[in-house]
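Take a look at the protein record below with the fold in mind.
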Amino acid sequence: MNRHFVLVVEDDAAVRYLMSTTLETHNYKYLSVATGESAILAISTHNPDIVILDLGLPDIDGVDIIKKVRTWSNVPIIVLSARSEDTDKILALDAGADDYLTKPFSVEELLARLRVTLRRISNIKQEDVIFVNGNLRIDYAAGCAYISKDELHLTPIEYKLLCLLSRNIGKVLTHTFITKEIWGSTLENDVSSLRVFMATLRKKIEKNPNGPQCIQTHVGVGYRMIKI
């Protein structure tokens, strides 16, 4: 069985111990460090599968670490921070973080976020031309999407949004990231347009109000496609 290697970057000794014990109990390999400089060195030399990063480190702010690492690595980064304002989440996600979890946190939720992120990168590595999530199926090569056996009639923008979310399943995508990918700009009007297109897309892929919801809204931040 492949044991995923997790780098924990946390200056609080008690929290660092809790995460290390949790990872060991659930059969993850791990390395824990307490500073930004140590984190950057560990990422470059140990090549972890995923990084759990605190933002409030004693030497380098976590957002600056994300920006620096993203110049040479796509390693998944889950932020674990006491900063709970939407602006802090947006800064970290726009810098390149894959997910954001606020303290105090549930160990079960942290493990779930780890599993989701690892599944996402596994799907990317497989480079499937067919994407399946619950009863949603996207044939990237044909440019078609289906709910069960019924083809969805999507506008070009709706289809681009659906593909963007699916290729980043489990990852929170900020309004800025999405509008830049879809329209090539980050104007306020584009964010308003995004909300309209997202509403129409959801009506088409989430027809059953009592069924599982595929797209999760993070109010003030962005959207995430969740694994069903």
